[in-house]
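User: I'm curious what two different proteins look like when written out as structure tokens. Can you demonstrate?

Assistant: Sure. I'll show them one after the other, since each token string lines up with its own sequence. Here's the first protein:
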Amino acid sequence: MFFRIIYLSLSQNIPVMRPIYTWQHPTWPEFTWDNSRLINLLSEVRNLEGRIQGLMGGLGFEVQNKTSLDVMTEEVVRSSEIEGETLNYDKVRSSMAIKLGIEVEGLPSADNYTEGIVQVMLDAVRGRDKALTHERLFNWHAALFPTGRSGMSPITVAAYRVGKEPMQVVSGAMGKEKVHYEAPKSEDVPAMMDDFLSWANADNNIDPVLKAAIAHMWFVAIHPFDDGNGRLARTITDMLLAKADGMPHRFYSMSAEILKERKAYYEILEKTTTGSTDITAWLEWFLQTMKSAIFRSESMVQRVIKKASFWQRNREVSMNERQVKVINRLWDDFEGKLTTSKWAKMTKTSQATALRDITDLIEKGILIISDDGGRSTNYLLKE
């Protein structure tokens, strides 16, 4: 399900039943939650954080950087995908690698738009201890919308939204729209953002992970920009989680998990931003999603460790450039089964050359023939 933003003309006199939104509640923005429902889950998340940090701490600097490259590339790509925008994964990875000082081969050069989006992520994570300000948010917003347009529509860029028309988040065909949310009046946004930023930069008596979750929901509730609010909310979340972790890199991707549960994500935000200021359900959802993200990251880190061990064991084995390239793909992001034809396609060679490369690696104990049958012979890494 995809949503769009509309501004309802004040001349449209449409009789509708309007819910009470969180920002209209008398106690806004004094959020409440039930600690008894969160304490065990929060403890689990904190323990998992410690475990992933311990795993990463035992790796060398180079491996840490490459793991962070994988995670932050995925975070950028998936955060945009949540909003229905598809970025070129290789271009994002190329830009991220250059900025992290990591050498990569065979990746395309990034365009200016991709460079800007990557820079937003790195500014948030590397600048996790810097104050979050209006100007910093405006710079991030300008990077997301360098042309001053969202799709074909002109929008206010690098400034909060303006205008007197109510801003609504809707889905459905024209004339059959379902209103999921109506944001505060544009004239109220600057003062609301003053309150939000003061809170975000203060040393609150709140667990840092919960603070990241609250900030995400609070920012979405204000909806301060014409577009890009979801992506910026997730960027702020990454910044505060990096601060909570106390690390200059990201080792798990919240956006990758949110994308898997996108429908539930929108539903819980809609529920939380309507009615009272009790946000317990949102905090539970956020913590559970973070837990899943760390579990997934732990599996990835274990794979990185195995990959490093593999190359260490086989450092004296002679391999050509094609063989090294395919083996690295098998460790990283290869989907499906390795066959001679896939090898030929990846390395842009003939199937005869591919078969010679594969046979050579079998003889050297690097590859084995899979015994799972099938119409074509396929091969596996001997880990």
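Here's a second, unrelated protein for contrast:
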Amino acid sequence: MPAAFMTRRAVLGTASAATLGAALPLPARAAPEADLWPRWQEHDSESTATIDHSAWADFLDGYLSRGPNGVNRFAYGRVDARDHKALKRYIEDLGATRISAHNRDEQFAFWANLYNALTIDVVLDHWPVETIRDIDISPGLFSDGPWGKKLLAVEGTELTLNEIEHRILRPIWQDPRVHYAVNCASIGCPNLRPEPFTGAKLEQQLDDAARTYVNHPRGATVRDGELIVSSIYTWFQEDFGGDDAGVIAHLRQHAEPELDEQLAQVSSISDDRYDWAINAPASSG
């Protein structure tokens, strides 16, 4: 089994109770809680202003492709210096945005696009890597991945990827579809979308992202009467109803008829899994 791939059963089968905590990948042991940062609640519900994400759209169009197995792949190894600089300019432009003056939908699109662009930028800065978890730039002796490093200032406040996801997106919107919007550059993660999120299309985009992931084997699979789900649903179970029944109910909201029929026959989660391998094409170099 590749080191980047982990299932609950694999861990339980190879670790004693005394060593289980050390054996689990960090996000499985200590998934960050949603911890509201009140400073980012400010918004203007009457605002009709929009944010230009065309540079992000052009960047995605040049390097993101849909794999034959339904997993979107990003060609990190093909990104040239000019386009990488363009990505950094886009990120800098977002950092210069007074996001508190926008409405909620524009804000969500802003934070999701910023998170994804920063993630790609971090991987490019450290390419080649086999998994984003190898980019240990977060502070602390036992840092794991880039999620705890201050990467950009917005409205004069420096932010980390963790803070964008767990202190802004999750607690302010309290929408489980947040987990389908942010991408961690891994095979097991919901797809990096081929288009930017926008305030005008947000609901449609979030529903599509949820439906795509739930109905892919990475999201949920019922085999011989047993439900196997992405580890996202166990790491962040509180966002999906708080227990197995809540997760199943959430899955059924987005499941296609065949999967929905299978989910109706199960009452608990038998196993979870997640693949941390980088979401690059095999030939990405």
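A detail about the second structure: Residues 9-29 have pLDDT under 50 and may be disordered.
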